[in-house]
Amino acid sequence: MSDIIRFLQSRRSVVVRKQGQRPLSDGHLEDILACGMRVPDHGGLAPWRIVVIDSASGARLGREILAPQFLAAHPDATQVMLEAEAARLTRSPVVLAVLSCPRAHPKIPVWEMELSAGAVCQTLLIAAQSLGYAAQWLTEWYAYDDQLLAALGGTPEQDRIAGFIYIGEKQEQPDERRRPQKEDIVRYLAAG
Ligand SMILES: Cc1cc2nc3c(=O)[nH]c(=O)nc-3n(C[C@H](O)[C@H](O)[C@H](O)COP(=O)(O)O)c2cc1C
């Protein structure tokens, strides 16, 4: 069995609360980004953007957007809750925000451009995991916040946040989770 197949058949996401803060090794972030940009993309439109958020920029977004937006939606929020919201994007040393940026096209449906953004997310995730990092694809509530989308360079009504890829230090091997059964998912179509 090839190393890549073995990796893909055993890779596992590590939840953010179990990720360590040790920074990524030199060059690894650039390698991960290069992999994320190399995805299937009908028409070569590159209908996605990747925003690199480090702890300092994550803290700024938390302070300026996440905490105030959370408070606006939950006026009873306590100070402790607001601090937790403000710190969300600082839970890992780096967070990659993936924006889906589809545009009207005469031949290529928006759906296909959105699928390509999902491919960017998954490829960033597996690239990070293949280098031995703990990584997780999250959306949480703030992926649907237009102020955050705009702060990341997106255009509300047009673009969407496909996900945040949290990448940190792997401190322990995660347990396997329940996986779908092949017979429930895969069907071999008969010839006739
Ligand atoms: C688009 C998308 C959004 C997700 N958002 C969340 C989330 O907000 N919160 C969460 O706990 N898990 C979320 N997950 C699930 C986890 O990232 C991940 O799928 C799960 O931990 C198991 O991952 P694994 O199969 O790679 O081990 C999301 C997954 C996807 C594909």
Description:
The protein has 192 residues and is of the alpha+beta class. Helices cover 39% and strands 17% of the residues. It contains 7 helices and 5 strands, in the order H-E-H-E-H-H-E-H-E-H-E-H. The structure holds flavin mononucleotide (FMN). Flavin mononucleotide binds at residues 12-13, 136-140, 163, 177.
CATH superfamily of the domain at 13-54 and 89-172, called what?
NADH Oxidase
- H/I helix tally: 7
CATH topology of the domain at 13-54 and 89-172: NADH Oxidase
Residues in β-strands, percent: 15-25%
Quickly give the structural class. alpha+beta
CATH class of the domain at 13-54 and 89-172, named Alpha Beta
Please tell me what the overall shape is. globular
Mean model confidence by pLDDT:
97
Rg over alpha carbons: 18 Å
Largest sheet: 5 strands, antiparallel
How many β strands by DSSP? 5
Overall helicity: 25-40%
Low-pLDDT segments: none
**Cofactors, ions and other ligands in the entry:** flavin mononucleotide
